[in-house]
Amino acid sequence: MNWKKQRHSGTVRLLHWVYAPAVLALIFSGLYIHSPSRAFGFKRMDSARKTHAVAQFLLLNSYLARICYGIKDKNYKEIIPNRKTLKAIPEFLKYEFFLSEKKTKYPKYNPGQKILITSLAGLIPVQMITGMTLYFKPLQRAVKAAGGLNPVRWLHYLAALMMVSFISVHLYFTLTNSLKKLKSIFTGYA
Amino acid sequence: MVNKDVPAKPLIIWLGTNTCAGDMLSLLNAKDPGYQELISSIAELRFDYLLGASEGSDAINVLDDLQKNHKAAYILVVEGSIPTRSNGLYSVIGYRNGKAWTALQAVRELGAEARYVVAAGTCAAFGGIYAAAPNPSKCVSLQAVLDRKVINVPGCPINPEWMMGTLNHLIQYGEPALDDYSRPKLFYGETIHNLCQRRDYFDNSIFAAKPGEPWCMYKIGCKGPVTYADCPVRQWNGEHLSWPVKANTPCIGCASPEFSDGNVPFFEHLPDVKLPGIKVTANRVGLWTGVVTALGIGAHLMGSILTGRLAETLKKDLPGGSKLKIRPRLKKGHK
Ligand code: SF4
After folding, report:
1. A80 φ/ψ angles, rounded to the nearest 5 degrees
2. What does pTM read for this prediction?
3. Ligand 1 centre and the CA of B203: distance in Å?
4. Burial degree of B33 (CB within 10 A; 0-12, 13-18, 19+)
């Protein structure tokens, strides 16, 4: 019998392991499309574009499924920052900036994680809309709001940079903050 | 001379506002039908700011006559953007009743009575070069000063056939199918990139490193992927001879609504970021984002090591971690 409390359900883990590689594939193929260089792991634009296309559908579907699951299971409440989260930010920052040694225990995610995950969740639709407008002409209305296709390209690039940055921070903290919590994204239990 | 007769052929007014005259000059290169055919058998070019023989009040009277006596019978083509600063005084069409008749007044008055209004070139369609920063005359597109539909035929300059085709469509079949930017889908229905002869080089990552090379121009800033126009198949100079990429230079996206501010530098993939006092390239933004992230993570990691937090995590979480010999915390433990 497993007496430990489950930290991540099977659905959360499954979806995480669909969209995490998809996002990584999108970042590397996207950087290659932005500036073709073998450093990003591709030799031909064609393969980078195909990877980008397949990964975007994996991300789109897993993201939508995660949103549905979050609403059905009400676990979005654990992620989206609320007033309590905002109040807890100064104390959290003090600890993270080594100004205090008092490590507060949070129900599931700390304020930093909540803000990070919510920001990533907010950036993904930006990428979906800008990416699709670069791809499909019928979405030109969205292009018009941005001032043209080249500005849309910029937005897509900027949001990608932000995602790279946030994901690096996410990876850093998962690898150094608590190895048990890191284990839980594989096994479900911390 | 004022002409009050009923015209046998459709009437066209070609008005020049803030323009370099490139669009009219480009139209002269049209072929099948050519300019001569346009003015002799297809339509009557009643007013042309560049090619008209009359000047002064003689010329302005023609416009007066068209506005008063040929309501909804003429096509108004405007070439150039419309300056709005100082009530439009930065572009004056002529004098009416002894007063300067600005382009702003002229397009509003003539546009209100026209059957169709067509913006010729990117300046008229989207503001273009005259509306580029710092835009001292506060130039705007034709649509921005008219509250009726404008058919946009952008390009810097227009391909002669985009304009000839649009005019002929208006005359023979009425309004062509337009996209969300009010451009005829006939000519702006697909990206340059999707029609390009060098697309195969793009897919196989065979890129030109400098202008003049016969490969894909993507790495030197080609805006073909973000520009809707049929240049690669229609080509230019009336004889369908060439187009920028065929001439070994990148497409600069001259038919796009963001041209030119949104497309410069022309030889870069993305435009620079312009904030008050600074200008940064897109690649530098990427580099700085990476550096700031790496420094942030590095600093935190260093702090975690020095304060012993990382050691504590490893000791606590690793199997057999308690036996690890890791340097003790510099500060006191958690309260
Ligand atoms: S030259 Fe320009 S338009 Fe042609 S394939 Fe390359 S990027 Fe696309």
Report:
1. -70, 125
2. 0.89
3. 10
4. middle
Q: Is the dihedral of CA A130, A134, A139, A145 positive or negative?
A: positive
Calculate ∠ Cα A42-A44-A47, nearest 5°. Answer: 75
Q: What are B68-74's contacts with CB under 8 Å, separation 24+?
A: B69/B4, B70/B7, B70/B11, B70/B113, B71/B113, B72/B113, B72/B114, B72/B115, B73/B7, B73/B10, B73/B11, B73/B115, B74/B10, B74/B11, B74/B12, B74/B13, B74/B46, B74/B113, B74/B114, B74/B115
User: pLDDT tens across A108-131, in order?
Assistant: 889 999 999 999 999 999 999 999
CA distances from B333 to A94, A102, A103, B309, B311 (A): 16, 9, 10, 9, 12
Residues of B in contact with A172 (CB under 8 A): 297, 300-301
| For residues B207-213, average pLDDT | 97
A40: which DSSP letter? G
CB–CB contacts below 8 A, A to B = 115
Which helix H or strand E contains B102, and what residues bound it?
strand B99-102
CB atoms within 10 A of CB B136: 10
B318 touches A: beta carbon within 8 Å: yes
Per-residue pLDDT of chain A (190 residues; tens, 9 = 90+): 455 778 889 999 999 999 999 999 999 999 999 999 999 999 999 999 999 999 999 999 999 999 999 999 888 888 999 999 999 999 999 999 999 888 888 888 899 999 999 999 999 999 999 999 998 888 877 888 888 999 999 999 999 999 999 999 999 999 888 888 888 899 988 7
CB < 8 Å to B303, chain A: 98
Condensed to tens digits (0 to 9), the pLDDT of residues B50-79 reads 999 898 999 999 999 999 999 999 999 999
Nearest to B258 among A44, A151, A180 (CB): A151
